[in-house]
# Entry
Amino acid sequence: METKLRVAFASDDVNEAVECAKDYLQKNYDFCIGSESDCWPIMASDVSKMVVEGKADFGVLMCWSGTGTAIAANKIKGIRAATVLDAWTAKGARLWNDANVIALSLKRLAPDVIIECLEAFLTTEAPEEAEVETIALLEELP
# Structure
């Protein structure tokens, strides 16, 4: 039996885009709500801590632009959060940065684009070998 990826999710608002993302994640992954807060710094921190503590493999955050949640998530040591607007950037976040949290705009992305981003991010298994040493340098930054 194949083990599904565990994905923690949080959003600071609810709309069609958010519901689409939740539906996709619930159908395809071991999905959990990562925060009960709708305050974006708190929810980003809650989801990020779940990833760092191994309670989730990846985190998905949604706020108006995606930027605020990514900034907040990146405050947590061990998190590499990326704001993405398309599937190419989502895949690149995994390949070139080993991102473990994705931040999406719930206002600027259509539901079908959100699904493309999630698929690209969550199905890219590992960073490119050529990037591993560079990514490791992130741990040395203060």
Remarks:
- The chain has one domain: 6-140.
- The mean pLDDT is 96.
- Residues 16-28 form the longest helix (13 residues).
